[in-house]
Write a structure and sequence with these properties.
The structure holds 2 protein chains of 2 kinds. By secondary structure, chain A is of the alpha/beta class. Chain A has helices at residues 36-46, 60-75, 99-107, 124-136, 155-158, 228-250, 267-277, 287-292, 299-314; strands at 2-6, 9-18, 22-24, 50-52, 84-88, 114-118, 142-149, 169-177, 184-190, 198-200, 224-226, 259-262, 318-325, 329-336, 341-347. Chain A is globular, with a radius of gyration of 19 Å. The model of chain A has no long low-confidence stretch (mean pLDDT 93). Chain B contains 4 helices and no strands. By secondary structure, chain B is mostly helical. Classes of the chains: A alpha/beta, B mainly alpha. Chains A and B meet through helix 1, helix 6 and helix 7 of A and helix 2 and helix 3 of B.
């Protein structure tokens, strides 16, 4: 396992953007064959209800771009001062080049800038913060971390009406070097043996596009699939111990933590994790998933923006961040915020 | 935890009116689905500290098979 502590990094600002189009589980007459009792049970136990989805011509990078522009405009931070851009997503614009280069161009950042993509979803925010921390200790002063996903693009996950739970979202976070910052702690873990538990099989070079990989309406068969039972059992087994280990490493107790900001996987799993941690469930916000769906990598910053934006700007908060999912991957961070700028969740405004 | 308590627990989780016993075939229970199965995984973990593999539970045909997973 990888444990790390950094004494010189500070999260300065968070900005998030979601598409304005909202869908509800109650709107889909074909969900679970229209079995109302079952739909009600799913909504009650999973916590899912609404989700935001992009239009066909809007990608996760568009959402992240707007989140970044909002961040620059609202904080006054100069684009020229950004010396690293990290983009984390599983829904990139192109196979080549990395989407971070496209965003580097659109945002008009300096050429004195390290640019990279991290293909990751549910743990992408924590992994991105970890990468940012390493960049800041490798010569950079200000890192722009863009994390966003648009899983609604994996059309075949939705067309059989079984798992319409993913919501699209983009986020921008500014992390800077600050010698007076409180320490930030990380614990990062991976299980490659479960790489096929959440997978999109087609479209890469192992299974390149073939004529038989299209539905009749012309949409591509990504063969995106999720082994829900396996992921649930993994999460139940691994996430809480990883959080406990990090708390021990950082010498903090449950009562020292203001909020457990979890990847908004679903209410059922979060309640179970809270129970395994003996954590006060009121310190674990989860209504973000009801309002916006499982936003993959952007769910942690969106949860902060949705639920904590007012509080976080006025007082120091100790936050435990936990991301887990595709990979399989699970990653925990402990941060102390200080004057963190955070707007609420903003709707995407179509570019003119 | 005794067999009867586990069966009662499963009945609560499923929120079913069906009469459950060791011989009950899971596929015959209207409420038995993927959501029910993860509830059972969570039940074993939280109430008995047991780790059950999702695949092992998927392979169960009857309520009795689930009890065997719990060592009953």
């Amino acid at each position: 396992m990888v444990k790390a502590a950094f004494n010189n990094i500070k999260i300065a600002a968070i900005s998030t953007v979601v598409p304005s189009k909202s869908l509800s589980l109650t709107d889909d007459p074909l969900l679970y064959g229209g079995n109302e009792k079952k739909i009600r049970r799913v909504i009650d136990s999973s916590g899912f209800l609404k989700r935001r989805v992009t239009e066909n011509d809007v990608t996760s990078s568009d959402l992240c771009y707007q989140a970044a522009e909002n961040l620059f405009r609202n904080t006054g931070i100069k684009k020229d001062d950004i010396d690293a851009l990290v983009f984390s997503s599983y829904t990139p614009d192109y196979l080549m080049p990395a989407t971070s280069y496209v965003l580097h161009d659109r945002l008009g950042l300096s050429e004195n800038c390290v640019v990279m993509d991290i293909p990751q979803a549910c743990s992408g925010y924590v992994l991105g913060l970890y990468q940012a921390a390493m960049l800041l200790n490798g010569g950079c002063k200000k890192v722009l971390l863009l994390v966003g996903d648009a899983f609604s693009k994996f059309s075949d996950m939705f067309r059989n009406h079984t798992a319409p739970v993913f919501g699209d979202a983009g986020s921008a976070t500014l992390i800077e070097r600050d010698g007076n910052a409180d320490p930030v702690f990380f614990d990062i873990r991976s299980s490659g043996k479960n790489y096929d538990a959440l997978m999109c099989k087609n479209g890469g070079f192992r299974n390149p596009p073939q004529p038989d990989m299209f539905y009749e309406d012309g949409t591509f068969k990504y063969e995106a699939s999720m082994d829900g039972g396996r992921i649930f059992s993994f999460t139940l087994e691994e996430v809480a111990p990883c959080i406990k280990d990090l708390m021990d490493f950082a010498l903090v107790k449950e009562e020292d933590i203001d909020y457990f900001v979890m990847h908004q996987a679903n209410k059922f799993i979060l309640e179970n994790i809270a129970e395994l941690l003996n954590a006060d469930v009121s310190k674990m916000p989860m209504s973000t998933l009801t309002e916006y769906g499982n936003q993959c990598g952007a769910s942690i910053p969106c949860c902060i923006a949705d639920r904590l934006s007012a509080e976080i700007q006025n007082k120091k908060l100790t936050l435990l961040l936990s991301g887990f999912g595709v990979g399989l991957s699970w990653a925990t961070a402990l941060i102390k915020t200080d004057n963190l700028y955070c707007s609420g969740v903003c709707d995407y405004v179509k570019e003119k | 935890m005794e067999k009867e308590q586990i069966i009662e627990g499963i009945k609560d989780l499923l929120d079913t009116e069906a009469d459950l016993n060791e011989g009950t075939v899971l596929d015959d229970i209207e409420e038995w689905d993927s959501l029910a199965s993860i509830s059972v995984l969570a039940f074993f973990k939280q109430k008995m500290g047991l780790k059950i593999e999702a695949q092992a539970l998927k392979d169960c045909k009857t309520v009795g098979d689930i009890l065997k997973l719990a060592g009953k």
